TrEMBL record:
The keyword ATP-binding applies. Pfam families: ATP-grasp_3. InterPro entries: ATP-grasp, ATP-grasp_PylC-type, UCP016817_carboligase. It comes from Aurantimonas aggregata. This is ATP-grasp domain-containing protein. The lineage of its organism: Bacteria, Pseudomonadati, Pseudomonadota, Alphaproteobacteria, Hyphomicrobiales. It comes from the Bacteria. Keywords: ATP-binding, Nucleotide-binding.
């Protein structure tokens, strides 16, 4: 038992939120799909929720597991990460038991229902790629996306057959930049920009690879992206940590989506001086600091993916730069995430290059152990 405040946490991968909670002096009662050693070390209590990433949570099993984690505790509420974008009804069910510490279920529904978000962008005057439920006449210029999908693995070419849980979005060429922010009341504070990249496979051509930031200078398009976020926030009650994903087209930034929850770039923006979960919980109380301190360095953080089936033997030593580490012995099927890799340097280019070298080093370690 602990005399510190506690929060319930659930996400596809909950380690980042649990580590931020620990920095903030808060006990995390956390569950996710992986149950890696890092989560066990960061959380006061943790459980693995058996399911299949990225298909989503089993609602009944999730709530039962949260009740087990909360047993004998008095959590102040529930913090969620990726995994709830396509099921606002599950958030509502959790909210009937514990306070939702973040953006509410009805707002998530407006953010993730394609037609509702497109209408919101049009009302706010924010450029957003055209969408359709009908198969496009020129599929080479469109993408097919799962409603409420996360991580990029659900994004495929526009010739994918239509389905009730999918929609089409016009492809826009350009660099992908995300703006992280924290929202409270009518205000929002910007944490910074990151550049994102993909780690494509044959089956998942737009699979998430990683992000680097904070970008030292987002250029003249930075104010336009901040104005777009402010315009959306003025029309929706966003609460706490969030991020807005843009593509920088030839005509200017176009908003792809807003993820109103703790996301993958926590590893980029986390700061012991001002833990992100502390910022998030303060925003839930309607408070924002006058100044948001950054991490003080440029970080690249992303996933190392298994290109083939891998058997991790007992005694395998994970490198210090890895996160979300599975306790060996373990097996990974091709296409599964191996771990998160983090690299820190003085510039965006140096951090990205170090990230790539570390991923290569990790693969070499796997190959030596498997030989």
């Amino acid at each position: 038992m602990s005399d510190r405040p506690s929060v319930l946490v659930a996400a596809f991968s909950a380690r980042q939120i649990a580590e931020s909670a620990r920095l903030a002096g808060i006990d995390a009662l956390a569950l996710d799909f992986f149950g890696d050693s890092d989560l066990a070390a960061a959380a006061l209590r943790s459980e693995v929720l058996h399911g299949h990433y990225p298909d989503g949570f089993d609602a009944d099993a999730l709530i039962v597991a949260l009740e087990r984690l909360a047993d004998g505790m008095a959590p102040v509420g529930f913090v969620y990460g990726a995994g709830f974008e396509d099921r606002p009804e599950l958030l509502a069910a959790i909210g009937a038991r514990w306070p939702i510490l973040g953006t509410d279920a009805s707002t998530q529904r407006r953010l993730k229902y394609p037609e509702a978000f497109a209408a919101l962008c049009a009302e706010a005057g924010v450029p957003h790629p055209p969408i359709s439920r009908d198969p496009p006449a020129d599929p080479a210029n469109w993408l097919s996306k799962k409603i409420g999908g996360a991580g990029g693995s659900h994004v495929v070419a526009g010739d994918h057959p239509p389905a009730p849980d999918r929609y089409y979005q016009r492809f826009v060429a350009g660099d992908h930049v995300s703006l992280a922010f924290v929202a409270a009341g009518e205000r929002c504070a910007f944490l910074g920009f990151t550049r994102q990249w993909t780690a494509p496979s044959t089956a998942e051509p737009y699979r998430y690879g990683g992000a680097v930031g904070p970008l030292a200078d987002p250029g003249p398009r930075g104010p336009a992206m901040q104005a777009a976020v402010a315009a959306i926030h003025a029309r929706l009650p966003l609460v706490g940590l969030a991020s807005a994903d843009f593509v920088l087209s030839a005509d200017g930034p176009e908003l792809l989506e807003i993820n109103a929850r703790a996301g993958a770039t926590l590893d980029v923006f986390e700061s012991a001086a001002q833990p992100l979960l502390a910022l998030h919980l303060a925003a839930c109380r309607g408070e924002l600091p006058e100044r948001v301190s950054g991490p003080g360095a440029i970080r690249a953080a992303g996933l190392a993916w298994a290109d083939s089936d891998i058997n991790l033997p007992a005694g395998f030593a994970w490198p210090d730069f890895s996160r979300d580490r599975t306790t060996p012995p373990a097996s990974f099927a091709a296409g599964q995430p191996l771990c998160t890799v983090v690299a820190e340097a003085e510039t965006e280019e140096a951090a990205t290059a170090l990230f790539e070298r570390r991923v290569a080093e990790l693969r070499e370690r796997f190959e030596r152990k498997a030989a």
